[in-house]
């Protein structure tokens, strides 16, 4: 039986892929985004595309009321002067809309590390959102705790091309779970369509195995013709100043860097890996199918 499904953050790396999967399966899909011009292709495939902000309770309520299930998330706001206050406001508006609408199935995009509520940067907000969603009554909520997105390496393509290195503020030799967003999207789409979860639950999505940033960088280098491509752990002060120079709010930068520098403490590695948490796309697959085409553009 086909479902009517709402996807928030439909222009994002995960939401856009969920939309494509569900549309290909013939479900009725409602996509909400602030910038709907990016969703023209999905409209042509039959999606109901609506302009809306995640803090617009009235629009969210009306949209959720029509649906069997919804994919929700906690979007970043690089201009937020107080990141945690922004996150709490978004979560509060989202919960109000869920309550008012009567929708009964929610898949929430969370993250590994969200079992902690401080010392983990952005994940402090996703952890709090999990707790607050869990307080809803008569609503089934599944939290997808995703590993580090392999797509994050696409953000440093400019550095690779300009400087001949890859780098972030994170430790290069501490292995963490890494996952392709296509794998996350496939799991989310399945739950949204099948409504196969009850109560409040968590599903870690951990990719095929753990990788270090240095190992992943070596795979990139071998694929793009730079076999000596090095990973460099960049000084926190340098990275922070780069973000500030690009107009990113200081508190957002602080949360982002706290997340990066805390990776070595193990907050991303608490989850026991097993068959149910492991997904198929390897770093090699990702670099060849996603990174290389992006690098060559």
Query: Which structural class is indicated by helix and strand composition?
Result: alpha/beta
- From the N-terminal CA to the C-terminal CA, the straight-line distance is 41 Å
Radius of gyration, in Å, reads 19 Å
SSE order in H/E notation? EHEHEHEHEHEEHEEHEEHEHHH
How confident is the prediction overall: mean pLDDT?
Answer: 93
**Biggest sheet overview:** 7 strands, parallel
Low-pLDDT windows of residues = none
**Count of distinct strands:** 12
Count, helices: 11
Question: Which strand order does the major sheet show?
Answer: 3-2-1-4-5-6-10
What fraction of residues sit in β-strands? 15-25%
Helical residue percent band: 40-55%
- Overall morphology: globular
Key terms for this structure?
single chain, 297 residues, alpha/beta, seven-stranded parallel beta sheet, three-stranded mixed beta sheet, 11 helices, globular
How would you sum up this structure in a few lines?
By secondary structure, the chain is α/β, with parallel strands linked by helices.
Topology diagram in text:
Layout: E1 4-8, H1 15-24, E2 28-33, H2 40-44, E3 48-51, H3 57-65, E4 69-72, H4 83-101, E5 105-111, H5 123-134, E6 140-146, E7 148-149, H6 157-163, E8 165-168, E9 176-179, H7 181-194, E10 200-205, E11 210-211, H8 213-224, E12 230-233, H9 236-245, H10 250-262, H11 283-296
Parallel strand pairs: 1-2, 1-4, 2-3, 4-5, 5-6, 6-10, 7-9, 8-12
Antiparallel strand pairs: 9-11
Helix pairs in contact: 1-7, 3-4, 4-5, 8-11, 9-10
